[in-house]
Amino acid sequence: MYSISVHSLAFKDLDQKLKGIQPPDLIQLYGTFPIDEAKPWANYLSQRFPNACRIGMASQKHISNGLVKSSGATLILSYFERSHLTYNSAPYDNTKVEQSGQRLFAPFLADEEKNRTSVYIVLVDSKDALQDEFFQVSLENDLVISGGRAGLSGNTNSWVLCQNEVSQKQAVAVGITGQCLTHQNDLFVDNIAIGRRMLITESEGKVLKQIDHLPAQQIYQRYLSNGERISLSLANNFALKTVHNNIEINAVPLSWESDGSILMSEALPEGAYVKFLYFHPVQSLLSIAPKIQSLSEQSPDSIFVFNCISREDYVGEVPNDQLNMLNQILPLHGAYCFGEFFSSQFGTKSMQHTLTYLAISESGCEPKRKPASLQLPDERDSLAPMFNLISNTFEELEQKHASFGRSTKTDSANSDWLHDLQTGLLNRFSLIGRLNNSQDIAHLAVFRIRNFRLINQQYGYHAADDLFAQLAHYLKRRLGTNSVGIEFTCYRLSANEIAVSIHNRIAPHKIFRLFRNLAEEIENEEFSTMKKVEQLLTLSLSVGMASALDQNGRALCEQSHLLIKASEARRYAQMNNQPIYWNGDLPESTSTEENLDWILKIRKALENADILAYFQPYYDSKTGEEVGAEALLRARIDGKIVSPALFLDLIKQTQLYAKITLFMLAKCEHILNTYPNVKVALNLSVLDFKHYATLKALRHFFQRNNVESRLTLEITESESIQDYEWISPIINEFRNAGALLAIDDFGAGYSNLEKLIALNPDILKLDGCIIKTIDKDEKLQKLVQHTNNLAHSLGIKTQAEFVHNEAVKQHLVDLNIDYLQGYHLSEPLSESDWLNKHKKQKI
């Protein structure tokens, strides 16, 4: 797709302006004239472009090909190749706001979900500021909405256009649907919260009477002018910000009342905590540079801007600041509004004093174009660092107060131990203090860098710490820009763990989606080492999230236990090869407090023959025939089959682990002796070779059985085999007895490659972390290709795990991987189900 715009001062000039222009699919008309003058424009467009979707609204200023226009009209003409447009219009009733939104979107939501539109441009004519209830339907259906409210300064004759109709008190929506359609939306806000939190102690509607039990005007005078009376124009630059019912409210003083109260632009409820919000353009200019760079890398086809009428971000017709930076990507098209619409994962809101945009591309199925290099703003004279310094200082003071709780003044006097010196983040002690002393954390996420040890070994501790600091900065920036109205705090828990607390009562699935998207973004991000910018590294993460309440408001755990639960969820995610897990989805028996109970359950399972062997087949990539199967441990607990991921790490600390290994060995022996054509693979760890009874049982096994390459011993590489000189003779002993050797989870651990290959394994099993996205990641394709070539050059066969779809399978077949294993081919089968396939071979 692509878009162009045409600016015309008068209706009579349209013919000349539109000469030679092909009929578009979508027309947006933004004009500075009242409703009676808009109707001839609408009639002309319907005659000239009868098949186009036509929308528009009254706009005091508009943007045509990157220039700001204050007169006439701008026509934005968009041409789509692979997308479908639908539109609807409905009356807007200020007394029935939510119903008005439902009527507007009802036709779109009536479609089947697979055909449902997710990207909308919405224009509304309303005399009053738009209430967020109008967008309740977007919260329930995950709609992305951009647009704004019509308006003309000092004029009540604003309007909106839908096809031929020019109307007032009306809303119009255009939905864009396409298989290859991608979109990105964001907002730029020129404000920063400064100062301490204050409590609204008395208010009535929009009249703010008392803050911290003092007259509201007195608070403004105390903090902004040292007690002197200040002008209303100066106070207009300082709104009061709060979050109420998960909605951010920015209330601006409108007039001083005679009793010391203030008439505000928005109602601030009693009991709400507020901060001063300072509007200043330099604050956001530097902070948005990474966002604009990211947008440039997405290579959009069109960018539609909806800017606030209060923003003076141009001189003459030439834009400056944020508009100028966006113009470097593509010439902008758009309108100035009396309220701009912005969608995040927490729904759609009507904003004030913001610049919002919608970037669209139909090339989502094609390789991305090379982004243009951007000219960034000059930092020398920026006030942004000063604002950030003030804001962060107050934030740290509040965090310390929350962490100390009831601690003594002596403790509070020296609080350096609450911070991590490397990153400046609050540390584990601070988080634990806050969890125990205050009740303001609703959700907690723990991010762990899985490849941190490898980075330490390869680049040194200083580089690894620097990468951690970069991750902390990235998290704070992305949370600050992508989560409007979300209050959060970051903590460093350990060398490779960072925690993020969320202080808003928001549904867990929305916060879960926020952290899941963040984790995906981070794993796709490239970080540079401290000394060499050209050395780019990627971080591998596992994330656990815990919530105090579930989706229905029922208690999941006490706030003081959130860190324990988030850590449990993170471990569960890593053990199950999941990017993120939530405590509400954890099996009940995974609680740390129930570790002893788990040991008892496994002991009883052994006594009652409830320890089971499951078998997951693996296949020849060329013929598709089954080659063998990997023996996998399962346990029947309370009538349910559970994975060892829930208990194996715990059991390894007890003698039960050796008994389980001996059980699996006996099961493999029975199968090998009963089914002479069957091949099995048995997982062993370094612990098994170091355990006297297990090693003795393995030797006796090979003395009485001639396995003839039908048994493969899989040793997990991710456990970091270090005692090569000690373990090599044992492995060679078993190989001489007929066993094959496979290195399991290759690519997930940190072992020395040279020494690993020196073990001369028969099979190299490639871990799921380098297989699962090989159909999308060219770097992983090259890594697997080179690993496969190296293995084959040494006479080692390769086997890929986590073959979870046809695309991954085909890539692995094309790369000449020898064996394939994964749920796409076969899930783990019970012993009886697997052996039923081989009964014809039974002696």
UniProtKB/TrEMBL annotation:
Coiled coil, from the record: none
Residue span, EAL domain: 595-842
Residues that span the membrane, as ranges: none
Pfam families for this protein: EAL, FIST, FIST_C, GGDEF
CDD domains for the chain: EAL (cd01948)
Superkingdom of this protein's organism: Bacteria
Protein name per UniProt: EAL domain-containing protein
